[in-house]
Queue: 2 jobs
Job 1
Amino acid sequence: MTNFWHERFSTEEYIYGKEPNQFVVEAAHVLPKGKVLCIAEGEGRNAVYLASLGFDVTAWDYAQAGLDKTQQLANEKGVSVKTELRDLAEVVWEEKQWDAIVHIFGHFPEDVMEKTMTGIQKALKVGGYYVSELYTKEQLRYGTGGPRDSVMLMDPADILHKFDGYFIKHFHVGEVNREEGQLHTGTAHVVQSIFQKREEEN
């Protein structure tokens, strides 16, 4: 799988484009200026955008070609993004490290998604935000991007269950239009989340 994404990103063209995801643009004003982690960040469009707004951004991906393009885009835009080659199936999450974690169209096998969601909760600081836009299982009917395996698509109820106890700043399920390079084109069915980690109870 690593080779698949490395090969997919090994082109001059940015296959998801250079512009940020529209939901990231909408969510950015909510986030505290601080340390932001973008997971499964691909070619860096969201990380570079957030860096341009003054966030301290780190991008994780398991395709070196994607990280190389992230640095190339950051240089092009005159911003700084830290890149780290990370496989979410293996990563050890450190506690209370991030003011926000951004997760856009990062779809994984069920066990990796479970590990990732648990890790995100551990790694967010108190008051930190989880921001995501992910394809729902309904996306199979649209065919405008994302995995073709329903197991790797999201059930919105599962996300609410996983982040039970968090403050729900925004939660939306439904259609959006996405024109993101050659692979996300047209009307899609997504679940959007902005969840804030509450103070821990004694």
Job 2
Amino acid sequence: MTALVLLGVLALAVLWLVGSYNSLVTLRQRCRQAFSDIDVQLKQRHDLIPNLVETVKGYAAHERGTLEELVAARNKAVAAQGPQAQAAAESALNGVLGRLFALAENYPDLKANQNFQQLQSELSDVENKIAASRRFFNNASAEYNAARESVPAAFYAASFGFAPQEFFNLEDGERKAVREIPKVQF
């Protein structure tokens, strides 16, 4: 009888460990899927940039340095691997895109160009999708990391290859820009 109780407790412990392991696998897959969603959105953004550069070239040819900088930042962003490297490259790309749109303010014909307006609108839409994808990824990463650091997973996660998941964070420049937005008073 005691052996049966002991066997039952052992079976429950094994089932608990297997369930915990399977939960980590599921959460890790969710992180991978979420990161893949970010990649899809970033690819759409990267694909829009050459069209934007071509449109701006016709109106602001003497702004060649900014356009070359934009192409270089895009290429670095395309080549970046991993959440931290991609976040840094995308932050640099955001900065150059911001300067390009600020430059466009000096060219009324460019601002009025239908193609430029459409590209600007598409980029804005993609930016919103990237932000949503980044939130989903960071949420999935937080869930995964919490499960990985909880008992019983904390005892075996590292030995089974469950590494901590990095977040897709804002760079310091983006954080500063967000903090510096003036508050609207009513």
